[in-house]
Each structure stands twice: as C-alpha cells, then as structure tokens.
Amino acid sequence: MRGPGGLPAASRLLRQPGPVARDRITLGMDICEDVRSGLVRLVPGTPLVEAFGAAMRAATGGEWRPAAFEILSGGFEPCIYCLAAPDPGGERVVTYTPMTNAGAVRAFGGSATLGIGADGAPLLHCHAWFAEPHEGRVFGGHLDTFASRVGGEGLRVRMMVFDSFDIRQLPDAETNHTVFRPLDRSGGVQ
C-alpha cells in the first residue's frame, strides 16, 4: 500500500520548520581532497570526546584537524545515549529524549564527527548501535560523548582526518538546531 507521493504507507515525510538549504554538503564530496586515514584502537576508560581527539592528534603530530570516524567494533562503558523524539513545542521536527545509561555494551557500528563546538571547544557528534551484554537486546542512539567512555576491550575505528577545511557547530535555520558545517580555513561556509 502506498501513501502520498508514492511512499510506503508506513513512511512519513518530515518537513523542517526553516527554509530548505540550497546546497547539501557531505564528507564524500570533493571538499575531501586532503585526507589522512587509518585504523585506530581507542584507549579503554577514556571519555569518547577525549579518545577520538587523541587519535586525531596522534595522526597529525598534535595539530588540531577535523575528523570523521566509522565505529567498527569494541564497546562503551558506560554508554549514555538519547533518542530523537517529536518536539512538543513545534520549534523543530525533533528534539531529544532524556539520557539513558545502558551500562556496559558491545558496539556493532556507528559514526562520529569531530569538530569545534559553538563554545570553541572540541565536540564529538556520535551515533552508534550496540547490544546489552546479558540479554543481547540491540539498540542505538545519539551518544553523550563526554559521559560515555571507551569500554574495557577498547574501540576499533576507521579514522579520516581532513586537512583542507574545518568543521564547526553553527546555527542552522532549516532545522533550528546547531549543526556541524564544513568551513574553509578562512571561516567561510563551504
């Protein structure tokens, strides 16, 4: 059965409250001309924002650069996460649920982006899927990268460090959230 626009009936179309961005930029586009990549094992017990930042700095000789990561395997302990939820105030399409502590979990995959937050400090945006160790229930969400830590077995990630642009958290008129945006080295939006 099909719904409006030929979409499956179970699908729903989400319309952001602000004007649609003219251009969409993804890290797979041509802005990624200078990339350093490799596999890295992150140190157990370290907050995620620190662990991912240390991996990036090790690859750059200590110099700050934005980076993207693919989570391949390992664990989080604790894993503090939230989910997207409808915004009851209507200012945004979604907001977030309260944080949940899942304890120690096994990571099955995910992605993370390391950039500079609105306050000028390093910020890691991370989504992952994981399973409880005892019941094996699989779930996922948006991780609190300051409270969540790399689990005892470590975390194996594929890292890409970008030399030709920066990534900064900026207000976004379309979503009414602050989001990561690529910027050229002079601070202009790519």
Structure explained in plain terms:
The protein is mainly β and 190 residues long. 7% of the residues lie in helices and 44% in strands. It contains one helix and twelve strands; from the N terminus they run βαβββββββββββ. The strands form three sheets. Strands 1-10-2-7-8-9-3-6 form an eight-stranded antiparallel β-sheet, with helices on one face. A two-stranded antiparallel sheet has the order 4-5. Strands 11-12 form a two-stranded antiparallel sheet. The longest helix is centred in the first third of the chain and has 13 residues. The N and C termini lie far apart (41 Å). The model has no long low-confidence stretch (mean pLDDT 84).
Keywords for this entry:
190 residues; mainly beta; two-stranded antiparallel sheet; 1 helix
Q: Layout of helices and strands, plus pairs?
A:
Layout: E1 35-42, H1 48-60, E2 67-76, E3 80-82, E4 84-86, E5 94-96, E6 100-101, E7 105-116, E8 122-131, E9 138-143, E10 150-162, E11 166-172, E12 177-183
Antiparallel strand pairs: 1-10, 2-7, 2-10, 3-6, 3-9, 4-5, 7-8, 8-9, 11-12
Distance between the termini: 41 Å
Strands of the largest sheet, in order across it?
1-10-2-7-8-9-3-6
- List SSEs in N-to-C order: EHEEEEEEEEEEE
Helix and strand content put the structural class at: mainly beta
Estimated share of beta-strand residues: 35-45%
Residue share in helix: under 10%
Q: Give the uncertain stretches in residue-range form.
A: none
Q: Can I get a quick summary?
A:
With 190 residues, the chain is mostly beta strands.
